[in-house]
Amino acid sequence: MTTQATIGLDQQTKDIIKATVPILQERGAEITSRFYGLMLENHPELKNIFNQTNQRKGDQSKALANTVYAAALHIDQLEEILPHVKQIAHKHRSLNIKPEQYPIVGKYLLLAMKDVLGSSATDEVIEAWGKAYGVIADVFITIEEEMYEETRNTTGGWVGFRNFKVTKKIVESDVITSFYLEPVDGNLFPSYKAGQYITVKAKIDGEPNEHLRQYSLSCAPTEGVYRISVKREDAIGANPAGIVSTFLHEKIQEGSVLPISAPSGDFSLDQTDSRPLILISGGVGLTPMMSMLETVIKEQPEREVIFIHAAKSGNLHAMKDRVAEITSDYEKVTSYTIYDSPLKDDKCDKEGYIDFEWLSSILPTNDAAFYFCGPKGFMRAAYQNLKKFNVANDDIHFEIFGPAEDISA
């Protein structure tokens, strides 16, 4: 990536970019917040792509600011951010981002820099960032085109959105419901890797824009069906109820049709690894973990698995009966349940939170593959606990729902 991606950047340009690192660290979120405001005001059609809830929370702005900052920091060695680029490219492919949208982003990113930084954004700085953005955009476009081509060439694969019918709707807990999906056209559709997700396009009465949301597939790839298990996001304090999750829970029934993208994502189970598999989840973060669990018992039945799930209480704990059944049927699988606020008749292995002392007491080794997913606070704690347990970086795998964030800070 370095030799090809930075070949068009002269040393002076790279020096100017590197000189902007401190100000991007300080004011990056301010710049990207202004960027989204400018772009969506002038291109309202892009509201059909960008998650407006994340816009309101500021999560999207922070994620973009982190990406811009990382690009500036590693402008001499862009291969350092290649894993991050590929992760974003998977999401872009799932959202059907097009090459012609990149110049729009570049235009308003530079305008936002000028707007926020004022006299600090000299013509020289803006020109340097224009060049750098062009190079970085080309990297994204190239990687994404390869992903689109791979999807087109996959048996049953498609690019864009394809109509799937809800064949079953199953209530899993007080807040999580599963939707089983099969193609309306009855034609072949591709398998996926355990841990991947699809994008659902929601067209909601009364909403001016379409809404795109990404949901992990929660069953094994061999089931011959796609299943998503969606948490209904209720209003809490100043945060309104989730538009799409509420729509799915209340309006979508068996027989309803949903346009979805083909499976995507770089968070997936490595089945070439036969070491113990540790799956740790919090709340609805169990969805990709269930896909991995269902996969490994079928395809690696001799592999030791420890499945750890944390929920607030039993009524909010989805798929507990299925996990209990698997634990009973497969001697290599051990499961643990942690409830933060258990109800009167709840049974669990630990009350409160997953802390280092408890985790280290039940884990057989740190020479294992660790996968975890859940709310961001939960994931930060899980990451810190695993690092304290001396787990190698290459053995730590996680998925963040929504815009990427550094949980290792």
TrEMBL record:
<comment type="function">
    <text>Is involved in NO detoxification in an aerobic process, termed nitric oxide dioxygenase (NOD) reaction that utilizes O(2) and NAD(P)H to convert NO to nitrate, which protects the bacterium from various noxious nitrogen compounds. Therefore, plays a central role in the inducible response to nitrosative stress.</text>
</comment>
<dbReference type="Pfam" id="PF00970">
    <property type="entry name" value="FAD_binding_6"/>
</dbReference>
<dbReference type="InterPro" id="IPR023950">
    <property type="entry name" value="Hmp"/>
</dbReference>
<feature type="binding site">
    <location>
        <begin position="213"/>
        <end position="216"/>
    </location>
    <ligand>
        <name>FAD</name>
    </ligand>
</feature>
<feature type="binding site">
    <location>
        <position position="197"/>
    </location>
    <ligand>
        <name>FAD</name>
    </ligand>
</feature>
<keyword id="KW-0408">Iron</keyword>
<dbReference type="InterPro" id="IPR017927">
    <property type="entry name" value="FAD-bd_FR_type"/>
</dbReference>
<keyword id="KW-0479">Metal-binding</keyword>
<dbReference type="InterPro" id="IPR039261">
    <property type="entry name" value="FNR_nucleotide-bd"/>
</dbReference>
<dbReference type="InterPro" id="IPR001433">
    <property type="entry name" value="OxRdtase_FAD/NAD-bd"/>
</dbReference>
<feature type="site" description="Influences the redox potential of the prosthetic heme and FAD groups">
    <location>
        <position position="91"/>
    </location>
</feature>
<feature type="binding site" description="proximal binding residue">
    <location>
        <position position="92"/>
    </location>
    <ligand>
        <name>heme b</name>
    </ligand>
</feature>
<dbReference type="InterPro" id="IPR017938">
    <property type="entry name" value="Riboflavin_synthase-like_b-brl"/>
</dbReference>
<feature type="binding site">
    <location>
        <begin position="283"/>
        <end position="288"/>
    </location>
    <ligand>
        <name>NADP(+)</name>
    </ligand>
</feature>
<dbReference type="InterPro" id="IPR012292">
    <property type="entry name" value="Globin/Proto"/>
</dbReference>
<dbReference type="InterPro" id="IPR001709">
    <property type="entry name" value="Flavoprot_Pyr_Nucl_cyt_Rdtase"/>
</dbReference>
<dbReference type="Pfam" id="PF00175">
    <property type="entry name" value="NAD_binding_1"/>
</dbReference>
<comment type="similarity">
    <text>Belongs to the globin family. Two-domain flavohemoproteins subfamily.</text>
</comment>
<keyword id="KW-0813">Transport</keyword>
<keyword id="KW-0349">Heme</keyword>
<keyword id="KW-0520">NAD</keyword>
<keyword id="KW-0216">Detoxification</keyword>
<keyword id="KW-0560">Oxidoreductase</keyword>
<dbReference type="GO" id="GO:0008941">
    <property type="term" value="F:nitric oxide dioxygenase NAD(P)H activity"/>
</dbReference>
<feature type="active site" description="Charge relay system">
    <location>
        <position position="144"/>
    </location>
</feature>
<feature type="site" description="Influences the redox potential of the prosthetic heme and FAD groups">
    <location>
        <position position="399"/>
    </location>
</feature>
<keyword id="KW-0274">FAD</keyword>
<dbReference type="Pfam" id="PF00042">
    <property type="entry name" value="Globin"/>
</dbReference>
<comment type="similarity">
    <text>In the C-terminal section; belongs to the flavoprotein pyridine nucleotide cytochrome reductase family.</text>
</comment>
<keyword id="KW-0521">NADP</keyword>
<protein>
    <recommendedName>
        <fullName>Flavohemoprotein</fullName>
        <ecNumber>1.14.12.17</ecNumber>
    </recommendedName>
</protein>
<dbReference type="InterPro" id="IPR000971">
    <property type="entry name" value="Globin"/>
</dbReference>
<keyword id="KW-0561">Oxygen transport</keyword>
<feature type="active site" description="Charge relay system">
    <location>
        <position position="102"/>
    </location>
</feature>
<keyword id="KW-0285">Flavoprotein</keyword>
<dbReference type="InterPro" id="IPR009050">
    <property type="entry name" value="Globin-like_sf"/>
</dbReference>
<feature type="site" description="Involved in heme-bound ligand stabilization and O-O bond activation">
    <location>
        <position position="36"/>
    </location>
</feature>
<feature type="domain" description="Globin">
    <location>
        <begin position="8"/>
        <end position="145"/>
    </location>
</feature>
<dbReference type="InterPro" id="IPR008333">
    <property type="entry name" value="Cbr1-like_FAD-bd_dom"/>
</dbReference>
<feature type="region of interest" description="Reductase">
    <location>
        <begin position="156"/>
        <end position="409"/>
    </location>
</feature>
<feature type="domain" description="FAD-binding FR-type">
    <location>
        <begin position="159"/>
        <end position="270"/>
    </location>
</feature>
